[in-house]
Design brief:
- Keywords: Flavoprotein, FMN, NADP, Oxidoreductase.
- This protein has 361 residues and is α/β, with parallel strands linked by helices.
- It has one domain: Aldolase class I (TIM Barrel), CATH 3.20.20.
- The protein is 32% helix and 15% strand.
- It has an eight-stranded parallel barrel with strand order 3-4-5-8-9-10-11-12, surrounded by six helices. Strands 1-2 form a two-stranded antiparallel sheet. It has a two-stranded parallel ribbon with strand order 6-7.
- Strand 9, helix 7 and strand 10 form a beta-alpha-beta unit.
- Helix 1 runs parallel beside helix 2.
- The protein is globular and about 60 Å long.
- Bound molecules: flavin mononucleotide.
């Protein structure tokens, strides 16, 4: 059967009305990890605009899991209560909503981007950051190496936040395992220099992510989809760098542990060669991971036109198209894309006079 950008997709109990996904985008508009009116409008307007799945910004499982003091969280009940009306509003528009859970590890404790995004030491309200190894990820401070006991509590924190995500009514969970944050700090040998069960071999470096997936699967309903965002490659020429072959290997394990979708991003420790950052530059990662493993994939990165998005789906390069910056420019991208592609997609009832069904004006 021919598929296009507006074909539905079923993932466990999640019935998506189309293939358009709002990619997670940190807003730095939270106090005490609480989502608020900004998040309601930011996420809600993309649901009104017709996105099939809306994913929240990276939401921390613990206060020290944040990148800045302004990140959202899911480490307490007040945060569950704050997310609930946002979840309900998005769902009332016919969209689904996933929370992206994360821990920034050694990349945490930074000032607000508008204040320079520099490392914030404990004396200035920040915290001591911890990572796979005692490394500096921002060239401003050195993280401490996590102990085995601390690793075990991290896994429990992820499971507890996943339980809270279910309580808040989220339809799915995405684990942020890319962009140089905690899980990536473990699976990439560029950062992980441990010599215990969590370092050294490939199996040891991916252990934390797999243990976390297991812990989350054990506390969420079987029918709830679990997504993982990976950095498919490290953008580094170093011999130890994470490669696409490593990603394929990891994805086969993630599938065995109950992960349904892999969203294929890249990088986090070093910037890609600027000349290679061109439209669709990360799509081949989603395509190759899908071809090698059969997992459902999301393509992301410099996808900005309806034609590009539709071709990714109709040619089978990926199952989902994730948009970030283009959605900041155009919250109604799906409605505009449907018109461009001559596909009939209903606008929200109160907006019909601006988006009349085809053939009427
Ligand atoms: C303002 C902003 C905030 C972002 N925050 C997150 C985040 O919280 N989690 C994440 O996985 N990616 C984050 N990203 C990356 C995007 O999800 C996306 O992968 C990237 O911007 C490339 O897609 P685009 O070319 O459509 O913008 C962020 C990007 C932007 C522009």
């Amino acid at each position: 059967m021919d598929v296009n950008l507006f074909s539905p997709l079923q993932i466990r109990s999640l019935a998506l009305k189309n293939r358009l996904v709002m990619s997670p985008m940190q807003q730095y508009r939270s106090t005490d990890g609480l989502a608020g009116p900004w998040h309601l409008v930011h996420l809600g307007s993309r649901a009104v605009g017709g996105m099939g799945l809306v994913i929240t910004e990276a939401t921390a499982v613990a206060p020290e899991g944040r990148n800045t003091l302004f990140d959202t969280g899911l480490w307490n009940e007040a945060q569950v209560a704050a997310w609930k009306p946002i979840v309900e509003f998005v769902q009332a528009q016919g969209a689904k909503i996933a929370v992206q859970l994360w821990h920034a590890g050694g990349k945490g404790s930074h000032a607000h981007p508008a204040a320079g995004f520099h490392y914030l030491p404990p004396a200035d309200g920040g915290w001591v950051t911890k990572s796979a190894s005692a490394v500096s990820l921002d060239r401003q401070h050195t993280a401490q190496q996590l102990t085995a006991a601390e690793i075990a509590s991290l896994v429990s924190e992820f499971a507890a936040s996943a339980r809270r995500a279910v309580q808040a009514g989220f339809d799915a969970i995405e684990l942020h395992a890319g962009h140089g944050y905690l899980f990536h700090q473990f699976y990439s040998a560029l950062v992980n220099q441990r010599q215990d069960d969590y370092g050294g071999s490939f199996e040891n470096r991916v252990r934390l992510l797999l243990e976390t997936v297991d812990a989350i699967r054990a506390v969420i309903p079987t029918e709830m989809p679990l997504l993982v965002r990976l950095s498919s490659v490290d953008f580094s020429e170093e011999e130890d760098a994470w490669s696409l072959a490593d990603s394929v290997h990891l994805v086969t394990l993630l599938q065995q542990h109950g992960v349904d979708v892999v969203t294929a991003s890249a990088g986090g420790f070093s910037a890609p060669d600027k000349t290679k950052v061109v439209p669709l530059y990360q799509v081949p990662y989603a395509e190759q991971i899908k071809a090698a493993t059969g997992v459902l994939t999301g393509a992301v990165g410099l996808i900005t036109t309806p034609e590009q998005a539709n071709t990714i789906i109709s040619s089978g390069q990926a199952d989902l198209v994730m948009l970030a910056r283009e959605l900041l420019r155009d919250p109604y991208f799906p409605l505009h894309a449907a018109a461009t592609l001559h596909l009939s997609v209903p606008a929200p009832e109160p907006y019909l006079r601006a988006f009349p069904p085809a053939g009427r004006s």
